[in-house]
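Box S2. Input/output pair 1.
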Amino acid sequence: MTDALEDHRGTVSIGGRPITNLRFADDIDGIAGNECELASLVEQLDKASSNFGMEISAAKTKIMANSKEPSKKEIKVNGQILERVTKFKYLGSIITDEGSKPEILSRIARTTAALTKLKPIWNNKNISISSKIRLLRSLLMSIFLYACESWTLNADIERRIRAMEMRCYRRLLGISYKDHTTNEEVSRRIENAIGPHVDLLTIVRQRKLKWYGHTTISSGLAKTIMQGNVNRGRGNAGMTTSENGQDLS
């Protein structure tokens, strides 16, 4: 990246700090203020990668624009036009221009699917309720809580989180919706089994606050991005992404 960015001048800045790329392990996000700038960044990175015997996979590299104006310029890698998308998965999370709601809904769906796969455990009468709850929290809630520190919560999302938690507890307790058992009664049975406990929504809030506190006392890029202002007068923002390898993202 050092070689690729040697002559590159980015126009995107946050809090007065130029931001041209975000990197984690072998995943890279290239960020530009307009399509021409993004095309230049891709070209320079493609050239720098070739100098070190590496190749960008056009099939795994995507472009997403944060703009209401339609994209016109074709950006290519190895003669292949890069696909433009409205959402993509980066470091295991779904990134879109709709905020965190699609990612949260995806997490709810994955957790529900895992809940169904573990039906033999929930139906096993030889396993105590307290053991089932520990399994639920270790096997399922860890799926749901991944990267929850970055979520934006609202009333609708909070309602969905509570509903998913109740759905998990009802399945674990063997309660059918036909039984007309209230959520209060479900919570009472869970508390009788394991004692006072923290509900899922509270865990999400605690993790968000913990991450915020950790970021606030630091002096890194995360703090700059979270607290800095974005200059919106420099054209359309573009991004390319990929999941792995030496692909540009």
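Box S3. Input/output pair 2.
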Amino acid sequence: MYVRKEAVLSSQTEGTQSSLQDLLAAEAHMFTPDMPHDVDEVVNHVAATNYGLERLKELPLSVRLIREIHGRLLQGVRGARLTPGELRRSQNWIGPAGCSLNEASFVPPPPHEVPAMLGALENFLHTDSSLPPLIQIGLAHAQFETIHPFLDGNGRVGRLLITFLLCQRQILPKPVLYLSHFFKQFRTEYDEHPQAVRDRGDWEGRLGFFLRGVAVVSHEATETARRILALREQHRGAVTASLGRAAANGHRILEHLYQNPIISVAGVQKLTGTTYTAADNIVSRLVGLDILQEATGYRRNRLFRYQPYISIFGENTSREDGA
């Protein structure tokens, strides 16, 4: 869920409208007419994150891996025609929508310099340094954004690099920081600091902002973890006290919900190996305990969400109440 929340917020920073609820619904194939069309971009972000974390077990963070991640991020969505996984071969620029190159607020390096600049960044990441790791990661993120090596998706890939570096350096055992929450909350500063570095060399301001974000989100993520553990113990106790002989299956379902917080009766049947009637009965009892909540309003093919858990990550059931 931390990965999902970061994917939603990072994508929203780039203008998507999909919420965490939309992402969870899409993962459960629970599509509705009002679901934003850009939810596939968020689904791709989750997939790219998980793919990158797996690849880091066998391949160090490198230009090759960055290109692979970019390809996964843009596969089949907006930007898919802009050479996913390939370094740009034309000039790009940053500025107001519709602006020309001459009106741009920032023009990244010309395309023929991009491979060498990324190579230098890769060397920086793998050279022994006396810099504190968070400073090195903050510098790397800033430099990647300045190189702007792709025609689209640079912001999302750059934020993913932070997560990958934190995990690769074993600063985090798991990707539990959703830094995009801080970046989105202070969007103006997030956009202004890179230009201040380019115009005035204000590295102190950029790194101070980055470190402040790490500190703030670390506290938030820690509090989220505490709330999850408290909720888990509360609901384990309720399942043990109320489900009797079905408690073992109740615990199995509960643990599953922490990875996939939307489930169907058929999914419960498959998970527990019981009959459909028994699965339907245990779902009804979990609804009675306020652990599960019916999410579709249908009489058949119903889906149930673990709403108390989802709400810890800051979203209620309606998109209007969400992030």
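Caption for Box S3: Residues 236 and 251 are 7 Å apart (CA to CA). DSSP finds 14 helices and three strands in the chain.
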